[in-house]
Design a protein that fits this description.
Strand order of the largest sheet: 1-2
Number of helices: 5
Shape: globular
Largest sheet: 2 strands, parallel
Order of helices and strands: HHHEHEH
Radius of gyration: 17 Å
Structural class: mainly alpha
Number of strands: 2
Length: 112
């Protein structure tokens, strides 16, 4: 019997995986659920931001003037949230493609 699909033999190379996904879709679909639409993923990210807002409010945390490191910044889904509230933002991601694109889009913000 020949095995046609063996996921346990497949090698997951994180940076290549994310570079490939983001080259196809540099949007919320690229960092969210690939099989779902971009609008579906947008709703999920809106919910994540609401939860972040509620958590900050609940714990009376102010981010204005605070340094924020967005680990796994991807397409910058949370970037505007932090910038609009006066945070000092730095983005970090495993995908070189994401870092290159975000650096072009936001030349005054550090990305690594």
């Amino acid at each position: 019997m020949k095995i046609l699909w063996a996921p346990w033999r497949m090698k997951y190379v994180q940076d290549h995986y994310w570079d490939s996904r983001l080259r196809k879709n540099f949007n919320l679909k690229g960092v969210g659920f690939e099989e779902m639409s971009e609008s579906y993923n947008k709703v999920l990210y809106e919910i994540k931001i609401k939860v972040l807002e509620e958590t900050l409010r609940k714990h009376q945390l102010k981010i204005q003037g605070k340094k924020v490191i967005d680990v796994g910044c991807g397409t910058g889904a949370f970037l505007n949230f932090y910038i609009e509230r006066g945070a000092i933002y730095t983005g970090i991601d495993i995908s070189e493609y994401a870092i290159t694109r975000l650096s072009e889009m936001y030349p005054n913000i550090p990305f690594y």
